[in-house]
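Late entry, written up from scratch paper. The run itself happened at the end of the previous shift, but nothing got recorded in the book at the time, so transcribing now.
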Amino acid sequence: MSSKRYLLGCMALLSLMGGAQAQSADDLRKDNASPGNVLTYGMGYNNQRYSPLKQINASNVSKMQPVWAYSLNNPQGQESQPIVHDGIMYVTTHNTTVALNPITGKQLWKNEIELPQDVFKMACCGILNRGAAIFEGKLFRVTLDAHVMAMDAKTGKQLWKVKAADYQNGQAMTSAPLIANGVVMTGIAGGEYGTRGFVDGWDPATGKRLWRFHTTAAPNEKGGDTWPGDTHEKGGAPTWLTGTYDPELDLVYWGTGNGGPWNPNARKGDNLYICSVVAIRPKTGELVWHYQFSPNDPYDYDATEVGMLIDMKVDGKDRKVLAQANRNGFFYVLDRANGELLKANPYVKVNWADSIDLKTGRPVQSDADRRVRAGEDVEIFPSVLGGKNWTPMSWNPETQLAYANTLNISWPYQLSKPEYKKGEWYLGINFRGVNMPKNEPHGYLSAMDPLTGKSKWQMAWPGQPSMAGTLSTAGGLVFTGAATGEFMAVDANNGKKLWEFQTSSGIIGLPVTWEQNGKQYVTVLSGAGGVWALLGDERMSQVPAGGSVWTFALN
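Output as recorded:
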């Protein structure tokens, strides 16, 4: 072989190696420190949704302008978080995956998914998808009819597709997969339909299922004695949001949702592992530890938004923690190595429990909860929507504050007799929606101390609360959006609104920021819908439908 041919062969091999390395496990671990890409859900395994970029900052964000907008040609709610890798942006809807040029917004490819028509009757809280995962040249996503699929990241060609559950039982898949230690991990929705939750681990190369961890314990499993009879079979504990991963501990943290039915008297006991965080090994699905936030939960207080992994001082000691602003209204701080409860304080108005006992980790029962379980009609805080809903919060290591859109809403609660019918809601309560306070804001953008639950500042939302996620940056900014479509930047230190732009529809998605060629960009999806469109007031009908992707930069 000539030296020239040998050199060309080596260059080709290196090119192939570089391509395979592009989405390696090491790249995923470094995602939060690699501002040119957004490779993971949460902008890093720690799920902090924080960027070290600061070209756009509090002093110049007023000069930010839209660079491009792309129509998703989709009238449903848009909750997807974009992925950005190697000069390509990936965005999902409930029935498409698109690859875009992130600088121009030009479509590079589009993969359309055929869905059975009856699947749309089964989706609990919106016809949507929350994003994709990328690994070793493949793009992974789930579908509303409970399949997992892999595509070639360069072309969009489908490589494999496997069935995870039967959607006709009420199970759906909406969340972005998580890649942890070389395993594709997915959850399941459908806790309102008398289903049994689980987390799956898949082989990224073939789609072979490697393991399944059920989130309701069977009689022969640890925790099985917390369910009477066979109630665990319809016990809920859905896993409909993406988990987080600590590579050093090799632990994946996944949040679980409500028990089924909502009526707790039908399943007396703690009902492990509903409304919990479970720490599992990604290679095997082995449960290492768990913490249950709301034992025997009657109130749909999902813990599926698992929270953030933070290294911080707690009572003067350096701790590796998992911090979660739970839907039940308490802000929890756990030791993420062993699940020890360190702090638990209310961050919104709460009356379902008086407090959380730090020694036992259990809620201290309130008079309101006693009356509920006795069958009375009681106003409960927070509502079925929670102290915050599904959209993740963000963390700024400089301010040591968590930024989240919180809710000031209650609901009337009264038990009724549960009746199971396949494919229908299995609640066992007299469900009458939510109550909006008349003379107070319905929600706030809150800057919270995880150790106390108290807010340093709050920005009230006029009219309708926000269900959007937040993004924090080293530029001293918090980005978020309004139900009525305004995308905005707020000063992280005091909550002052610094910039605002009206998009084409309501914002319920997750903003991200990234850079190319030394320039910082911010991207968010616009498209009203989701649970707020179902339970909110009539003013949502005045917000235009229609999904789009917006990207901004300094003028």
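The CA atoms of residues 71 and 179 lie 29 Å apart.
(Scratch paper discarded after transcription.)
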